[in-house]
């Protein structure tokens, strides 16, 4: 468990190597209880590796990692079992024999209660991602880990999913770590934005702005510029990629 009531995650000197090359290299990180943190960085910088370690899915590490016992993760791919109906997918891996009502409560929370008896292949991309979120939420996590959960969605569905996650976080008050490539997504959702580079946290800033937020908010401009600079991207390059 974390060391005190104010810390949900404590990481000290964390190293994870593959074939002798450190992907996470002596990393230190503390996440405050109830905080929404976005983790940015280029592909291969170690973001997803760090998330998997925090989720308990990768234990070949050195260093100290203290996390809550109750934690859950949602990935970019919903990873639903096609031979199980949606409500049964939500309950996968839960101890004991929870009933359908437990799954339906979580599905109702993400607006998918009406599809509880559906087969996964009949769900839209947004619905499948909401089912994946319900599967995480049914565990009542103190730490919710999100690994680019909106990356495969179209723009409109992505906005709806972002809004849903913001609402769920505000309602539940759990600690959230969101891994993303999207600077605007980080600024819309997070209290704190981190940039990972060469296996460590290279930049750390608070996003101390009122909610709800809009991408066009002038207050976001300075933070966006600085985050893009830390990622080695200019505003012009960012604008071109957004309209491509």
Rg calculated over all Cα atoms: 18 Å
- CATH architectural group of the domain at 1-70 and 164-244: 3-Layer(aba) Sandwich
The fraction of residues in strands falls at 25-35%
Structural class: alpha/beta
Query: What is the number of E strands?
Result: 9
- According to CATH, the homologous superfamily of the domain at 1-70 and 164-244 is P-loop containing nucleotide triphosphate hydrolases
Major β-sheet strand ordering: 5-6-7-3-8-9
**Major β-sheet profile:** 6 strands, mixed
Low-confidence stretches: 240-244
Task: Name the features.
6-stranded mixed sheet, 9 strands, 244 residues, globular, Rossmann fold
What's a quick, concise take on this entry?
33% of the residues lie in helices and 25% in strands. The protein is built from 8 helices and 9 strands.
Task: Give a description of the structure.
The protein has a domain at 1-70 and 164-244: Rossmann fold. Helix content is 33%, strand content 25%. It has eight helices and nine strands. α3 (100-109) crosses α4.
Explain the layout of strands and helices:
Blueprint: E1 7-18, E2 21-32, E3 36-40, H1 47-54, E4 62-66, E5 71-75, H2 86-90, H3 100-109, H4 125-137, E6 143-147, H5 155-172, E7 175-179, H6 183-189, E8 192-197, E9 200-206, H7 221-230, H8 235-243
Parallel strand pairs: 3-7, 3-8, 5-6, 6-7
Antiparallel strand pairs: 1-2, 1-4, 8-9
Helix pairs in contact: 3-4
